[in-house]
Specification:
- This protein has 625 residues and is mostly helical.
- It has 3 domains: 2-37 and 475-602, CBS-domain; 43-246, Clc chloride channel, CATH 1.10.3080; 262-460, Orthogonal Bundle (Clc chloride channel).
- Helices cover 56% and strands 5% of the residues.
- The strands form 3 sheets. The chain has a 4-stranded mixed sheet with strand order 1-3-4-5. Strands 7-8-9 form a 3-stranded mixed sheet.
- The two termini are 56 Å apart.
- 50% of the residues are buried.
Length: 625
Amino acid sequence: MQEGSNVTDISNASTTGGLPLDASLAPTLLSVRAPAREPLVNGRVVYISALSICIAVVASVIARGLTALIGLVTNLAFYGRFSFAFTSPAHNHLGLYVIVVPVIGGLIVGLMARYGSAAIRGHGIPEAMEQILYGRSRIPARVTFLKPLSAAVAIGTGGPFGAEGPIIATGGALGSLVGQLLKITADERKTLLAAGAAAGMTATFGSPVSAVLLSIELLLFEYRPRSIIPVSLACAMAQGVRVAFVGSAPIFAMSDVLSPGGGALAIYILLGALVGLASVAATRAVYWVEDLFEHLPIHWMWWPAMGAVAVGVIGYFAPHTMGVGYDNIENILRGNILGRAVAMLFLLKFLSWAISLGSGTSGGTLAPLFTIGGGLGSLLGSAAIYVFPSIGIDIRVAAMVGMAAMFAGASRALLASVVFAFETTRQPLGLMPLLGGCTTAFLISSLLMRHTIMTEKIARRGGRVLAEYSADYLNQVLVRDTATREVVALSAEDTLANVRAWFKTRAAGTGHQGFPVNDREGRLVGVVTRRDIFDSKEAESAPLRAIIRRPVAVAFEDNSLREAADHMISEGVGRLPVVTQENPRKLTGWLTRSDLLLAHRQRLEDASHSKREIEVGVQTIRLGS
């Protein structure tokens, strides 16, 4: 038996295999299996990018088609005419009959969900997140067709939703469908899903950069070149298709706003905090309404029709609360709606949206949140101007901050919210107020609410969505900094009888299950376990090398612990000999699963304020009295 590091030499071997060696050596000497190192990008990324661009084109066309379909349903339901022109239901002359139209739409959506797919219920993004997290990014093919149809019916009959949610969900379903038809990995399918969803958002709002950020913050759960590149290219293509259809003008065009001074900037930041409080209240209200519907003694198929009653009643008194309401957002941002009018609009829009969404119908949340937030921001801006008339507050900037801060607080997609408001208004002077206001809304939401409007439903179903994404700690630590240097090695020439006898002595009183095996020259031959030794059918006089059956799996000193851990899983082993790149048969250390866990000690110590906090970092639960 040998102890300590073993220094020998063999022919150089690559990281993916080995070169032929002396035929007299054990079978494991014929190759060395080490962790493969993948580049940041490869040919697969180019392939997935090409698919993403194609999906973006189709998703953009679907977005225009869904917009036209919503227009058709709206014109038929409220005006009795056959037209695909996108219009608002606010100018109808149906009188009290306007209450019936959303109810009919709710009945149709309920039937589609009951007999088509329940996945069409909701606003789309949480459902896509759930499939990414727990469904290997597999969305049923029928959702690709039923989601836009149900959304067109719900919104076209007066539902207070935006078209963007269903379009995002449809684009994601399209990407998932393509990924299921082709032979690609689950990670690549996730990228296609995110690319389709981001392309749908871009095609709706003309906001490619914020669509990429939204994918990172809500869908991809990572920041890697192999996923960012395809999604970014998809958004760029979707923007090109959108420009071809409707031009390049911003969707919420505004005249130039005032440059904010220090005092005004402070007010906008405070305004964002107040809107953040409102975003928490709005999120809780939606799920409170959903809980009320859950307790009803009737099948959920009827809930959308019941929620639509509130839509119709509110729509009778405030027609502008019905439909997507993009014109409302634009008028709020331009300052065309002020005072009592904007207060009534955002309050009644909130009631209509919360009740309808809580009923489980099909529709988006972005446009309603923008309307509610923009209206609240406008009101708070008016109050600030009254109190501080001389510090240069622009009510349009206040509305813009309110719009973005409401979404930032409700979804916690901070960067996407800031950039979205900029891209859809093209107001560079609003960037600093947006950054400050959205950040305070994000802060308040994080302090007061564990889950968001996007993740609460997933959490209620027993899932968990991470709110923080950081680099894998094991990727930052090298094997050479963690491996055990004092290694107990066995000799390949010892007989099984001698080795078994050694294990029975006090000297072998170690808890180790695996041991490296060296030849006479100290070169690594392979690895054996206690089970290999005691279960072997070889003769007692057989040398230890005779029971080595598989190529030796090793880790290089400059591998990361993540690479080593993945290699353990792929090889089905719990320990790896550590060698150098130059001499892959030079045993320099030993790495076990326990070493991988112990490597986290430094991370915990770095994150703690004191060593005491680590030692007492266990919650004690008292059982009984």
